[in-house]
Amino acid sequence: MSVRGKDLTGLVEEYAPVRLAEPWDRVGWQLGDPGRPVKGVLVALDPVEEVLEEAAANGVGLVVTHHPLFPAPLPHIRLDEARGRLVASFLRRDIGLYVAHTNLDKAGAGVSAVLARKLGLVDRRPLGTGSGENYLKLAVFVPETHLEQVREAVCRAGAGQVGDYSDCTFSVRGTGTFRPGPGTNPFTGRTGELTRVGEARLETIVPAGRLEEVLSGMLSAHPYEEVAYDLFDLQNRIERLGLLWVGRLSVAGSLKELGAQVKSALGAERVRLGGPPDRVLERVAVAGGSGASLWREAYQAGAQVLVTGEVKYHEGRDMLAEGFCFVEAGHAATERIVIPALGAFLTARCREKSWPVAVHTASKADEPFWYL
Is the Cβ–Cβ distance between 55 and 42 less than 8 Å? Predict the structure, then answer.
């Protein structure tokens, strides 16, 4: 069975829907041919030479990273520059590169969600710092024999996602009637005769930004020459998940104790703390990576401390001036925890689909720092 790169990245988008990405972000395919068959995928934090070498050693045709190779438009790709050489190496080895960045940060099982879980926070929830999105209701009439085929096609294209739940659909059975006219080529029935068919009405929810892909997938999977479907504008707006998660410690403790807990849970080489060491804390906010700029949202939500990857000097000063504490554990340490989670998801979904794909998680490349 041949599995294409875009089939695998479709699974990544189940885990971290592209619609969650920030407007400025560059996610999705960055290098390679999405239609190329692949036998393996490597999930990593950064698209760097060490990761590419590991991918080649494992014989995989696709690398999925959290950080983009092209965070901004490139004026050129030159082979006398490191990034240009890396691009050339990916293309020469025929290995594709796909990026899940802020959409993976905000996903229901993404970076910040995994960080909150790793720290053992209870009553944890996301803060909806992202904007809402318009949705439509899709209702399509499908012969019962093809219901599952069409359902899977529309969900794979981006329909049926409600919060942390995917593949959300509803169907009810009934009888459809139609009379094929002259020149038609009906899937069932005869020209000029009234035909009765056991059909299902399949309903699901579609983000407005994915409507074109969903309709294309539906029409490709549907057996009818003329497909009957309805679209309804919805008044409800589903809030995007935020970059921040908040929760509370099961047992309140000091800032110093929290710092030690963070260091141990994340395997961080070191942590930096801001605030009185003996300050007793219970309400904690987390944001993987460069999340310090979100501290005001965390403060307004009632958190007493922010655990994140990077804190700039003046951000730290501003937090302390408001009596708000922070724990800085390193950019990679607060984000690499999602790599095994995404890898496990891809492994499980490939097994469910009986896809012969080997899923690897990178063992190389981490923080670009070392400490004396």
Answer: yes
The per-residue pLDDT for 215 is 96
User: 63-102 burial, b for 16+ CB within 10 Å, e for fewer?
Assistant: bbbbbbbeeeeeeeeeeeeeeeebbeebeeeebbbbbbbb
- Provide the pLDDT for residue 341: 96
pLDDT at 130: 47
Give CA angle at 168 (161, 202), nearest 5°: 120
Helix (H, G, I), strand (E, B) or coil at 40: strand
Specify burial of residue 257 (Cβ count, 10 A radius: 0-12, 13-18, 19+). Answer: middle
Q: Output the pLDDT for position 132.
A: 53
Alpha-carbon distances, residue 78 vs 53, 81, 87, 93, 96 (angstroms): 20, 6, 9, 18, 19
> Of the candidates 212, 122, 204, which has an alpha carbon nearest to the alpha carbon of residue 165?
204
Q: How far apart are CA 237 and CA 132, in angstroms?
A: 6
Q: Alpha-carbon distance 80 to 73, whole Å?
A: 18
Element holding 256 (H helix, E strand): helix 255-266
Task: Please answer whether residues 204 and 154 qualify as being in contact, where contact means their C-beta atoms are separated by less than 8 angstroms.
Answer: yes
Round to whole Å and give the CA distance between 32 and 18: 18
Q: 87 — phi, psi (to 5°)?
A: -60, -45
SS3 226: coil
pTM of the shown model: 0.76
Residue closest to 310 by CA, chosen among 325, 289, 324, 296: 289
Sites in the chain below the pLDDT cut of 50: 129-131
Beta strands at 169-178 and 229-233: parallel, antiparallel or unpaired: unpaired
Q: Which residues contact 288 (CB under 8 A, 6 or more apart)?
A: 105, 111, 112, 115, 308, 309, 334, 335, 337, 338
Domains of the chain in start order, with CATH, are 5-106+337-361 (3.40.1390.30), 111-130+242-331 (3.40.1390.30), 135-233 (3.30.70.120)
Closest CA to 164 of 15, 12, 371, 347: 15
Place of tokens 């999105």: 133
263: its two tokens? 């260091």
